[in-house]
Amino acid sequence: MARKILTFDPPDRFIAGTLGEPGKRVFHLQAIGGGRAATVVVEKTQVAILARRIAEMLKDLGEGSAALKIPAADSPLSLTQPRLSEPVDPAFRVGTIALAWDPSVNRLILEFRDDMSEEEASDAPPPINDAPDGPDVLRVSLTVAAALAFAEQSLQLAAAGRPPCPNCGVPLEATGHRCARKAAYLN
To answer: CA triplet 7, 78, 55: central angle to 5 degrees?
Structure first.
């Protein structure tokens, strides 16, 4: 099958979203722009780590460069519709995520690569390139304001799951759970 490289430079909208009930949610990233949309499946931890890393990276870059100051005209992506746009038809499940800063356009480049099958997997990820035999890719270019807005929205989304048990920290189900720290009493 031919490799897909889905590029949004920049997208009109880029969000993290979920489908399903807390505890059984499936996390997605969705880019929309130029009359097309692309959705990929990610893990909750990938969303949270990506959001924290974006914020850290931009903070580190901003400490050494006045070019990263957000101009007043640089508006963030639309976060007024934090829900995924229908239909949600994921192109692939994300395995590897890469972040890069492009100083020539002051943009953060995010690259999401298809999760490789076990026989293709190795200790080292394949190099980032557009070779025809590589994994499918979603590539998104974000302004500083858009990247910060995405990071903030993503952190809120990842934190919005089930509340943790105050004793053991395990996420609580609606029906309670057997807490190991409370000698198996139902909370």
So the answer is: 75
Single-letter amino acid, residue 11: P
Distance (Å, whole) CA 26 – CA 36: 22
Distances from the Cα of 99 to the Cα of 12, 56, 78, 108, angstroms: 19, 12, 21, 7
- Do residues 150 and 99 touch, judged by C-beta distance below 8 A? no
CB 44 within 8 A of CB 156: no
Rounded Cα distance between 24 and 95, Å, is 20
Residue matched to tokens 């050494």: 64
**Per-residue model confidence as pLDDT tens digits over 55-113:** 999 888 876 655 555 544 444 554 444 688 888 999 999 999 999 999 899 899 999 99
CA distance 174 to 154: 24
What's the mean pLDDT when you consider all of the chain?
A: 81
- The reported pTM is 0.76
Tokens of 76: 């963030």
Name the token pair of 178.
């057997």
Q: Which of 124, 148, 120 lies closest to 134 in space, CA to CA?
A: 120
Closest CA to 136 of 110, 109, 111, 113: 113
Amino acid at residue number 146? A
Query: Domain segments of the chain: what residues?
Result: 5-186
